Structure formats: structure tokens, C-alpha cells
Amino acid sequence: MSVREKAATTFDKHRREQIVRIARTTTPAQRLAWLEEMIRLALRTGALPKRRSP
């Protein structure tokens, strides 16, 4: 296994563990609040397209 493959495996394992830890230590309301804030941040910075008028 190459160094790059080992790093990717380690990263993936860490990411999965982090997701489980966050899911266990936060409430659904906290996760939703975080998601809403990240969407606002993405809109402010131009990472997401602006909403179109109906």
C-alpha cells in the first residue's frame, strides 16, 4: 500500500469516526442550526448561486 493510499484510508476512517461522534453528541436541532448557518455562509461568500425570484 502506498503512502497516498494509507493517508486516504486514515482520512476516511477519521471522517467516519467524526461523523459518528457528532451524531452522538449533538441534537437534531443543533445539527440543523449548523446546517442553516453553513448555507447562509455559502450564500454570503458566493459558494452557492443566489436564489432566483419566482
Explain what this protein looks like in three dimensions.
The chain is mostly helical and 54 residues long. It has two helices and no strands. The longest helix has 23 residues. The N and C termini lie far apart (53 Å).
Question: Key terms for this structure?
Answer:
mainly alpha, 54 residues, 2 helices, 76% helix, flat
Number of domains: 1
Global shape = flat
SSE topology string: HH
Averaged pLDDT: 90
Question: What's this, in brief?
Answer:
This protein is mainly alpha-helical. It is 76% helix and 0% strand. It is built from two helices and no strands.
What's the topology here?
Blueprint: H1 3-25, H2 28-45
